[in-house]
Amino acid sequence: MTSPTERFGDRVADYVRTRPGYPDALVTLLVRELGLSPATTRVVDVGSGTGLSALPFLRAGFAVTGVEPNAGMRAAAEDLLRDEPRFSSVAGTAEQTTLPDAAADLLVAAQAFHWFDRAAARAEARRVLAPGGHAALVWNDRRLVGDAFHEGYEAALLRWGTDYQAVRHDQVGDAALAAFFGDAPRSAILENHQDLGREGLVGRALSSSYVPKAGQPGHEPLMNELDRLFSAHAREGRVRIVYDTRVWFGRLSAG
To answer: Does domain 12-142+169-193+244-250 sit in CATH 3.90.226.10?
Structure first.
């Protein structure tokens, strides 16, 4: 299995073009529930990728430091957010951020925690968080059932994805979340979606590390199935992928 740090190195362009962002309601929720303020809250985005997870915080006026180990994805974020003076990024990992002690008031990991060494990441988070600081773990969960399009897309990934079932983030259960926070965290589910054209749907699939690339076994039949799904379900040249944006948040206990 490719190292988590390098899995997306050859998929940056598709990731930038076709991955869903995060709703502004995420920041609204955390501001309300945790008492955050752009004037006093320093956000550290661990596994910041191409910058999508930093955007809603920047739109709300927060300063964000991205921590990203993959050079290509980090460069994409720096390009996307080049006009955002409140954004900076460093080469680091969840286990070794390179940041000083107490550098964050809110530590966020979006679509990333399932790749972490959880014990080491927890220790690093506690070091980086200032007293009274909070953490939030976020995932965009694609709907798997409910209509023929979403069910067909999931069936295609199960059939032709390389290690899809092994790396799915929904394998992070309540026990792992409680171990990271030190107690059961609070949680919420937010609405999210993206509308994609035919090329966007293909790019969305190819942005996933478990989807075979051109020349690899399974690539051609998967592309054919995506084309069939698009032709069957597109409306006005678009298909809609629906997500539940799930967030777990709270303080990290000393235990």
So the answer is: no
